[in-house]
Amino acid sequence: MKKKLFITRKFPAHIVEPLEEFYDIEQWQEEDIVIPREKLLAAVADCEVLWVTIADQVDEELLLHAPNLKLVTNLAVGFNNIDVVALRKRGIMATNTPGVLTNTTADLVFGLLLATARRIPESERYLRDGKWQSWYPMQLVGKDVSGATIGIIGMGRIGQAVARRAKGFDMKVIYHNRRRRHEAEEMYGFRYAPLEDLLKQSDFVVIMTPFNSDTVGLIGAKELAMMQEDAVLINASRGGIIDETALYDTLKNGKLWAAGLDVFEYEPISMDHPILTLPNVVALPHIGSASLKTRTAMLTLNVNAITAYGQGKAVSNRID
Ligand code: DGY
């Protein structure tokens, strides 16, 4: 008898179909709507493998509804939507998608950095709104990226890819991380700094650290107050790392130049969230890894894990 696989989104048929060799597949039939929680809880009742996105919470409650579950595959490198401790207690494996989205996400971070520094979305709105009457010297002036200091919080794969891009812009790179990255320091001249120093010294602060109990609310009112008034804050990791209310107040009071946000505490962000009223906020719908090549690579890593499990082989990209 085939194992039961439940997929919480409609993924491309050519990606899913090869799995039919090993699995009875059930799939939520919407591409862009999250499966309602009660439907998900019912769907996992007899499934052995569960393929989820970051919008699905795999927690104690779900596990109580899923007595046969053996493998959870997450279409993301970040796995804050999965209670890995609860899974481990039950001997359930989990996998993610490391490595394949590094460059794509780092590119997007740089896009956000340039967009905020040079006020690109605001300038485009200005033009489309018919406000461009003439050229004048101080029109829509921004901040230089070249030669500025970038402070990267979280120097994992993506943080380091951002840092390498920064070198290409002649930026001075400082970073904060749980572990020193001696090799990157020697190879590229990146400099380690305690968080407080990084916040004080950086023209651009980029958050790339994973979201967990150590980093929830890491950047609050106190940390924002340490930043320079003309600094830019970029977040392409997880929204909960920044206190959004404090960020709104800081920006509103002119104590920060701008923020570039690809992630929010609650996603999708509510359209009446006050942060969206600020012209110096560039807000994106969590598209860090959204290139066709990278999303396909992420799906493929998940397929490989699910296939290996179906064949009784070792499963790679396990979250430990
Ligand atoms: C990840 O992989 O964690 C991203 O945030 C989703 O693409």
Could you explain the architecture of this structure?
- This protein is an alpha/beta fold and 320 residues long.
- It folds into 2 domains: 3-100 and 292-310, NAD(P)-binding Rossmann-like Domain (Rossmann fold), CATH 3.40.50; 102-283, NAD(P)-binding Rossmann-like Domain (Rossmann fold).
- It is 33% helix and 15% strand.
- It has 12 helices and 12 strands.
- It has helices spanning 13-16, 37-43, 60-64, 84-89, 102-117, 120-128, 157-168, 182-188, 195-201, 221-226, 244-252, 292-310; strands at 3-7, 23-27, 49-52, 71-74, 93-95, 149-153, 172-176, 191-192, 204-207, 232-235, 258-261, 281-283.
- It has a 7-stranded parallel sheet with strand order 8-7-6-9-10-11-12, with helices on both faces. Strands 2-1-3-4-5 form a 5-stranded parallel sheet.
- Helix 7 (157-168) links the parallel strand 6 and strand 7.
- Helix 5 crosses helix 7 (157-168).
- It starts with a strand and ends in a 10-residue tail after the last helix.
- The model has no long low-confidence stretch (mean pLDDT 98).
- The chain binds (2R)-2,3-dihydroxypropanoic acid.
- (2R)-2,3-dihydroxypropanoic acid (DGY) binds at residues 54, 76-78, 101, 288-289.
- The site of (2R)-2,3-dihydroxypropanoic acid (DGY) has 7 residues, from loops.
